[in-house]
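Issue: ligand-bound run for pyridoxal-5'-phosphate - logging full I/O for the record.

Environment: standard queue, default settings, no custom constraints.

Inputs:
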Amino acid sequence: MEKKNIDWSNLGFSYLKTDKRFVSNYKNGAWDEGVLTGDDQVTISECAGVLQYAQTVFEGMKAYTTEQGKTVIFRPDLNAARMADSARRLEMPVYPENKFVQAVTETVRANAAWVPPYGSGATLYVRPYMFGSDAVIGVKPSGEYQFRVFTTPVGPYFRGGVKPLTLRVSDFDRAAPRGTGHIKAGLNYAMSLYAIVNAHAEGYDENLYLDAATRTRVEETGGANFLFVTKDGKVVTPKSNSILPSITRRSLMVVARDYLGLECEEREVYFDEVKDFAECGLCGTAAVISPVGKIVDHGHEICFPAGMETMGPVTQKLYDTLTGIQMGRIEAPKGWIHVVE
Ligand code: PLP
Ligand code: COI
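Outputs:
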């Protein structure tokens, strides 16, 4: 199969229409079989639940070309489970988890020419999503839904690749206690746009959100979880019911413990203690691990020792091991790598 003629190494994190996408509709209480189609347009009621009341959830994962030349997807079963949790929280029907993995696999296979080659630094981002598609005017769940999966080749999420980021402590909150911060719903991102546009305008790469109840604990950024490293080499990640349970973060904790022999802790992290950490990074599918060089809290700067040019040593080891597993250079834990035959 011939790859598309794309300058893979210079891709950013943006949408590029690929050949095929998967579409399945839910009506009268059941999902249809679903089809792969070349049509990238969606036609729905002007009064659709997604348009009026933001009834939509999504997922994000990546497909890679390994060193051995295989196309693989990283832990899609966990995305299927998380999307099921998201759907339940927004009163949407669950798209069956096994069918989710099948749909993702078929979509990646149908876009094989768009899976970036090994060593290019790019990957194929896979975006499953689901939305209420029929008319609702009273505030209630839709009766009909559409589940879709599209793919797009991407480069690094943050411009500059793995250069350390500068964050600011946001004056806005991302998620309420007992709200929807733990699910992957469009509404959590719509409300973050004001804060991110403003952060960019002021020269910051991202916002660090504090917990809404006390504004003393570190939650996450708009699109990634935090990882910290203590001065004695322990990996620490914030525990909270209002952050997204990142698959990358959960995987990195296993990598840290089982591959690197590091002690790991998932616990509440107070903003007051951030200045004492040796390293800080953001982790997520899009972000992979992006090092944080500086956090600014209303003019007060916290600068991490590795500075603004390189990753800290533990962050680098975590990055190398995780990407090594994803790209087939390092043996993966059982079940982590889903091969697209
Ligand atoms: N937190 C938020 C708010 C996100 O949008 C994402 C991206 O998916 C993550 C964390 C990282 O999650 P994952 O590692 O599963 O991609
Ligand atoms: C991902 O990492 O997959 C995400 O969904 C983050 C998003 C903000 C691009």
